[in-house]
Design goal:
Blueprint lengths: L2 E4 L4 E8 L6 E8 L7 E9 L2 E10 L3 E6 L6 E6 L3 E6 L7 E4 L5 E6 L8 E5 L3 E5 L5 E6 L5 E6 L6 E6 L4 E5 L4 E6 L6 E6 L6 E6 L3 E6 L8 E4 L5 E6 L6 E6 L4 E5 L6 E5 L6 E6 L11 E6 L2 E6 L3
Antiparallel strand pairs: 1-28, 2-3, 3-4, 4-5, 6-7, 7-8, 8-9, 10-11, 11-12, 12-13, 14-15, 15-16, 16-17, 18-19, 19-20, 20-21, 22-23, 23-24, 24-25, 26-27, 27-28
């Protein structure tokens, strides 16, 4: 059975991330009134055998749309807000460690780098820019080239100083931090792209999720056609994630209230459709720590006022 926790009155979840250090800890970014007005809440939660408990929560003056854990400190997180700010939080403190406001519109995506030898944050905004920051939220560089809102940014888990962005202009772009250049622009969809993610096992594979209801998997060595196109959602795909345990397995969540599991190596790639939510599903994440990982992978999915834990099909 799924495990459900309400985030509070008039709070709508936008992002959920499992801690890379603590197996049962997760962070959630939420906003009032679908982020249109009101404030935001950042929650740190623990999933215990007896239920989900609140570790820490903070209120912010504007909506919060994404959150990412530090890869070097188990207590530190970064969140992106509707006021154009990034906030650095420590779960042992009651106020932010630092606030930086250099974006001019909503920050819709934040990600902390995962490769060894670097410790960087990337943010993406409705102001059509991506920015790279050091761990103290000093802006190091700004990346321009998209012609629409940037909804998603993700570091390569393989290549240092390399990240990807997905935009309302229909393109997927791959950027190099050292040169400051866009290395590749892929016209991935004819409609807005709301999410992208990097395969954990192949540095050349990226997936995109779009308003056209499709997931497309791309091989960066040949982007004339997608490696796979996954159809099944009936409304826009809000977020997708590659499995940390299987090269060709990923999960997607949608405004159609569902989470879907896919294996694009199969003739019939749809593994399962999960319908536990009663509102838009805006965030999901795989848990990296579960034992017996092939048979028992769990994800966390977040939607309107709910956090749900569900098993992945074996």
């Amino acid at each position: 059975m799924p495990l459900t926790l309400c985030c509070g009155p008039a709070r709508h979840g936008y992002s959920v991330k499992v801690s890379p250090f603590i197996p049962n800890r997760l962070a959630c970014a939420a906003s009032q009134y679908y982020g249109i007005a009101g404030c935001g809440t950042l929650l740190v939660l623990e999933d215990n055998p007896t239920g989900v408990s609140l570790v820490q929560s903070w209120e912010w003056s504007d909506g919060l749309f994404d959150v990412s854990w530090s890869e070097s400190n188990e207590h530190v997180l970064v969140a992106g807000g509707g006021d154009g700010s990034l906030q650095l939080w420590d779960s042992t403190n009651h106020s932010p460690l630092r606030v930086a406001k250099e974006h001019t519109q909503e920050v819709y995506a934040v990600d902390w780098s995962q490769t060894r030898g670097e410790n960087l944050i990337v943010s993406a905004s409705w102001d059509q820019t991506a920015k790279v920051w050091d761990p103290g939220l000093q802006c190091l560089s700004t990346f321009r080239g998209h012609e629409g809102v940037i909804y998603s940014s993700i570091w390569s888990p393989h290549i240092p100083g390399c990240f990807a962005t997905a935009s309302g202009d229909g393109t997927l772009r791959v950027w190099d931090v050292k040169s400051g250049l866009c290395r590749l622009a892929v016209p991935a969809h004819k409609t807005e792209i709301l999410s992208c993610d990097w395969c954990k096992y192949d540095q050349n594979l990226l997936a995109t999720g779009s308003v056209d209801c499709s997931v497309r998997v791309w091989d960066l060595r040949n982007v004339r056609e997608p490696v796979s196109q996954l159809q099944g959602h009936s409304y826009a795909i809000r977020r997708l994630k590659f499995s940390p345990f299987h090269k060709t397995v990923l999960a997607s969540c949608s405004y159609d209230f569902t989470v879907r599991f896919w294996d694009f190596s199969l003739p019939q790639p749809l593994l399962e459709t999960v319908e536990h939510h009663s509102e838009f599903v805006c965030g999901l994440d795989f848990n990296l720590h579960i034992l017996n990982q092939v048979q028992r992978v769990f994800i966390k999915a977040l939607s309107d006022e709910q956090i749900i834990k569900m098993p992945n099909p074996a």
